[in-house]
Amino acid sequence: MALPQAIKAGLPCMNLLRMTAVPILEQLYLEERLLRSSAENWCIINHGTSLPTIVMGISGRPSELVELKPVLRDQIPVIRRFSGGGTVIIDNGTLFVSLICNKNAIPGLQPYPHPIMSWTGQLYGQVLCEFGDFHLRENDYAFNSHKFGGNAQSIIKDRWIHHTSFLWDYDARNMEYLKLPSRAPKYRSARSHVEFLCRMKDYVPSRTSFIEGTIKSLGGHFSIRPFDLDELGSLSSSLSGSTKLLTRQELEEACTSQCVAVR
Amino acid sequence: MASRLMWASQAASFLRISLFSRAFSTVIKDLKYSDTHEWAKVDGSSVTIGITDHAQDHLGDVVYVELPEVGANAKQGKNFGSVESVKATSDVNSPVSGEIVEVNSELNGSPGLINGSPFEKGWIIKVKMSDAGELNSLMDSEQYSKFCEEEDAKH
């Protein structure tokens, strides 16, 4: 058993779980489980995901958000996650960082969407401002006006999660699977996916420098304790929560309704 | 500013609503309130439930409401559904236990009713209460106003 790091006086503990290429569905099941069943603070970092996958927010409708014919043709998985927010297509160039906190973990932080968005924006701003003109633009992380990080949250009685998909790199061809969303931030200004997004690797020297910087930034608020995936035990098993992989039948029905709407 | 507050206070008294001066969130007298910002309107054993003006103001524009099934059981202090606003889903917790006998299906097409009319058209569920004694653990309007002021003052 690894010796725990010295607890920083007065700071709450945060468990740091680092993973590589864990499928996003598994990651989301784990996060939902930790949010609802654990009483501890967590930082989960996952480098990439094995297959290109579309992930919608809780209210996402595939007929409105996804180009269903190519998705069905190419058998791209479509997931509806438990948190709010928009639709992303993720692949092995995506970097995930998720923060799960008790509502009293950060003194003075109200457990509502805007305060949490602002606080996490400052956390990442500390890390990224030296690499580019970092902004929290509406609810996205951007260099100038180009988005590289998408955020989503879920807030329950005494805890919250703020999770981010960072575009370390991405395959522009995958963007063809997504429609332009009807609900988009104003700063997007009707730009296409490719014109709107940027890659972190064009700004930040390495994934390691970003991850280590983030952990250091978190260390100003928490006492970080490395945690192994195999220590999770029963917490790592799937939960009958809100996160759902859509079936082929559901996607086909959505495709039918999409075709009818077009006619 | 002082005359505006005095006018507001007189109007509030006439309309049987409370205002707390800092945020001007509305609190309705005669309702009961939970510490997770839900309200309960009691009518015999039937209780109508929604989220407060304070809650909708802090959440932002509601774009989606996850409603429970009619017939499901609600438990005091436990979530029965959620609302989506900004990029967040936020649990809505029941102030009382009992069977959910009605849900506000208008919220499917018009989730913004929660923002525009949190205490009336934005109601979320109706519950047939199983234990009226649970009402004793809820706050009245004055206690809730004070609770909100104290919560906002801490941050």
Automatic annotation (TrEMBL), chain A:
Pfam families according to UniProt: LplA-B_cat
Domain of life where this protein originates: Eukaryota
InterPro entries: aa-tRNA-synth_II/BPL/LPL, BPL_LPL_catalytic, Lipoate-ligase_2_inactive
Protein name in UniProt: BPL/LPL catalytic domain-containing protein
Span of domain BPL/LPL catalytic: 38-226
UniProtKB/TrEMBL annotation, chain B:
Keywords from the named record: Lipoyl, Mitochondrion, Signal, Transit peptide
Main localization category: mitochondrion
UniProt subcellular location: Mitochondrion
Cofactor(s) listed: (R)-lipoate
PROSITE patterns assigned to the protein according to its UniProt record, in alphabetical order: BIOTINYL_LIPOYL (PS50968)
GO cellular component: glycine cleavage complex; mitochondrion
Modified residues (N6-lipoyllysine): 87
InterPro entries, alphabetized: Biotin_lipoyl, GCV_H, GCV_H/Fam206, GCV_H_sub
GO process annotations (BP): glycine decarboxylation via glycine cleavage system; protein lipoylation
UniProt remark on cofactor binding: Binds 1 lipoyl cofactor covalently.
Domain Lipoyl-binding: 46-128
Signal peptide stretch: 1-23
Function: The H protein shuttles the methylamine group of glycine from the P protein to the T protein.
Family recorded in the similarity comment: Belongs to the GcvH family.
Subunit annotation: The glycine cleavage system is composed of four proteins: P, T, L and H.
Protein name: Glycine cleavage system H protein
Organism: Zingiber officinale (Ginger)
